[in-house]
Amino acid sequence: MTDWSKTALLIRESRGHWVGEAAAAVHAAGLRAVLLAPPMDAAEWAAMAEVVDDVVAVEDVHDAAALCTMIRGITGGATPAGVLTGSDGAIACTARVAELLGVAHCPADAFVLAGNKFAVRQVLAEAGVPCPGFALIADPAEAGVVAAEVGLPAIVKPVNGAGSNLVRTVHTVGELVEAYRLLAERLPESLDDRYHRPVLGRPGAPAIDPAKVFLVEALLRGPEYAVDVLIRDGEVEPVEILDKPLIDEHKFELALSCPPAGLSEERAGLVVAAASAAVRALGLDNTCAHVEVIDDEVSGPTIVEVNAGRPAGSIMPLLAKLRTGIDVIAESVTLALGIPAPPRENAKLPIPLGMLILYPPCGGRLAAIHGLDEVAALPEVINVITTVSPGEVLSDEQETYGVNLVVAGFTDHDDLAALHAEAAKLIRFEMRDGI
């Protein structure tokens, strides 16, 4: 008979390598891991069954009340040890499920707020935390007024987007009109469910249609950093700072490195202070967050993204673990479950490390990735990790990391760029479906 008080429920929205890592952390805590996910084919089901103790099919992972009713039916009314997720689009709903089940450790409203980029900027601005100028655009006819309010050049993005999906830089009112029309055309066709659900934010504020209303924010100029933070009982602990020296025209990051080259202790302190102030202003506690900061040449460290309820994506947590000994994923699992923090190891590679990201050159269904052995043989490459699988449909508008390399032995950002170029020549993504 299942002891549900020692069982953690993992809610998955779509494919994601986080499930195996989270399940391992759950098991290390002495608990069972049961995955709730939309129906999947037999091969994927078998793969998931290897890393969790059970898999339960769920038609809709975004209906908190229905999920709670289903969970109570599965458990016979017993309360599970906790509920957690690593899926961006399911974070707010999972938090609401945890509240309904009585196992929440951070208010669901904080995650709802964090999922609305416009609402986040409102709260940060009111709290005096630096963020870029911002406004919503709901009609191309508003482009002139919005441009005057925010200033040009500017960034246009979905109000609840992730992975740099359909992020555009505009320099003129005409380009802002074109960007609006592009997003209004493409988002209703997106396979990502988040763009087909109303976006809530602050309690009492009207919902936003993410396929019709977009965020416009002032373009910042300066180096960009990423900070993972843990928040436990009100105490904010930064784990690691990475910089993003290589960004492509889609705003996709091509490389990250830690520690950031040339970042003084004083500037690092300001970056961390901005990230810490942001998570506090948003009411986050007993959770983790991935915060992105641009050290703007005018306003200084300025918040550009707060991804609440999850650490950085892909293998960034691995870099942090190698350099600091802190397992951010295991820490986030214990925070979600309200159990003591996991033991910390000594840093295995407390040296400068980098991460290189290689993307498919076009969208389509992935058939195979070639050149992995060749790139692994490069002397600077420590590890090669793929986070996509054959059969998966990939979009060239989405920042989906295809091949990820952990590298060391580079001297500066130019060296890292040269290494990325060399690796890119070796990797080939074979795509199907005629794309």
TrEMBL record:
<dbReference type="InterPro" id="IPR040570">
    <property type="entry name" value="LAL_C2"/>
</dbReference>
<dbReference type="Pfam" id="PF18603">
    <property type="entry name" value="LAL_C2"/>
</dbReference>
<keyword id="KW-0067">ATP-binding</keyword>
<keyword id="KW-0436">Ligase</keyword>
<dbReference type="Pfam" id="PF13535">
    <property type="entry name" value="ATP-grasp_4"/>
</dbReference>
<dbReference type="InterPro" id="IPR052032">
    <property type="entry name" value="ATP-dep_AA_Ligase"/>
</dbReference>
<dbReference type="GO" id="GO:0046872">
    <property type="term" value="F:metal ion binding"/>
</dbReference>
<dbReference type="GO" id="GO:0016874">
    <property type="term" value="F:ligase activity"/>
</dbReference>
<dbReference type="GO" id="GO:0005524">
    <property type="term" value="F:ATP binding"/>
</dbReference>
<keyword id="KW-0547">Nucleotide-binding</keyword>
<feature type="domain" description="ATP-grasp">
    <location>
        <begin position="121"/>
        <end position="337"/>
    </location>
</feature>
<protein>
    <submittedName>
        <fullName>ATP-grasp domain-containing protein</fullName>
    </submittedName>
</protein>
<dbReference type="InterPro" id="IPR011761">
    <property type="entry name" value="ATP-grasp"/>
</dbReference>
